[in-house]
Specification:
The protein is built from 11 helices and 25 strands. The protein is of the alpha/beta class. Helix 5 crosses helix 6, helix 8 runs parallel beside helix 10 and helix 10 packs parallel to helix 11. The chain is elongated, with a radius of gyration of 28 Å.
Length: 534
Amino acid sequence: MTDRATPVAARAEYDPLADPDWQEPEPPRKRLSWTRLGVLVLALGLLGAGGTFEVMHLRNTAGPTAKSWAVPYVDVTLTPTFQFQDPTANPANDVALGFVVADPKSPCAPSWGGAYTLDGADTSLELDRRIDQLRQAGGDITLSLGGLNNSELAVACTSPAKLTAAYRQLVKRYDVRTLDLDIEGAAVADRASLKRRVAAVAAVQKEREKAGKPLAVWLTLPVAPSGLTDDGVGVVRGMLEGGVALRGVNVMTMDYNNGDARPDMLALSLSALGNTHKQLSDLYLRLGQKLTSPQVWSRIGATPMIGQNDIDNERFTLADADGLARFAVDNGLGRVSMWSINRDAPCRGTFANVVVHSNTCSGVDQDPLAFSKVFAGLPGQAPGRDDQDSVEMPDQAATVDDPKTSPYPIWRLSALYAAGYKVVWHGVVYEAKWANSGVDPAAAPAAGTQSAWTVVGPVSPVEKAPRPVPVVTGVTKVWTPGTVYRRGARVLFDSLPYEAQWTTKDETPSTAFPVDADDPWKPLFNVPGEPKTN
């Protein structure tokens, strides 16, 4: 998401005095309103130049037509896993999940960062469940495809039919309402992939519209202070001409590398946004759509890289964030994102004024989640928010957890849970934030304190009991009552291997997980939900 490109070449200005057919209009007999005068000037200009030169967009001083929407990016595959579904970790509610790319082993199959299949992300990262939990809490996801690293689906998959099927699979699986196409690097100028992408997205968007589930589509593109590159403008035009109902263009206001020793990142970003506004105004007009200035702003988004950018001397500060947020509200910017909420924290163990490039901290002096809280105050919300009633949490008071259908062990009052342990309690999956015992996951924490548990999401009615995985082989003796077992003896109980920690008799191996440390039998198997240990 950090690739930048060269500025756009300046366009020639139209000189009416150099046009032999141009005549100065007679002064009007009546005083015209500014609106009527603007329309008249526009019409005369189009007639004089045959509609071929860049024309100022129709102006509208009535105010913004959109409420700016905060949607920070989350790096899904980054370790440690960011709990975007937890309101204490994500003040913004909505998130843009990145990045879906081509599977390295199967170019037409979508994957998360080339590291997880869709099913693998569900199993290893609890991604599906966490998305459900976010929606139940009133938020939603934007699904982001592409990015700077790995191979973007439309680039890697040369089969138009398979590419369309891949997009269809993603949109259906995650019930996507907003799709973000992050096109960077060489992909911006790859005409073959652009053509495939346009056709696939347009087809899926029309299918969703017909099914009564509209799909909003954003383009995320590199930008310079002078605006989009020529290739970037071409990407936008290709989408519009190819039948995609484009919700907007999100520009990456970062990594300008303009040579300034101490660049003003807010000023550079506002310049980039202003010039993008001019480019889109002109483009829509050339395509036959006369948009007012506020209407164009509502089709533009901004994504700064918070804190330290990839360019050593570029830092986007909290003051810059405040300025961008005010600009977004004043102009009705359609969207404000940031890269990334994983980085919205101070770096630890580093010296002040030292450049720190990190995926998990900002490299500037800040409180945790400080940038997120600035943008979380923006008044907009995700498209289709009013329709989000498909995910419901169970009635906890009436839910009885069944070991046969719970994907993780059921919470026990007396058990000691290590950080990262997952449990089921009243139909909901929780994950321990730190080691704890006797803390009810569903209970509200005391005033001024945090809960020891993170809500992961509701249990699906089709889930099954966890299957423990033995870590040893060759255990064949079945535990029997009345037998004295010495330390180190190994037995099978309920088809699972255990080892005696000391001499024991008539003490049944525990099947309540996690097994207590003072239990005479140590399990020789892993239980789903247990944190991985190295």
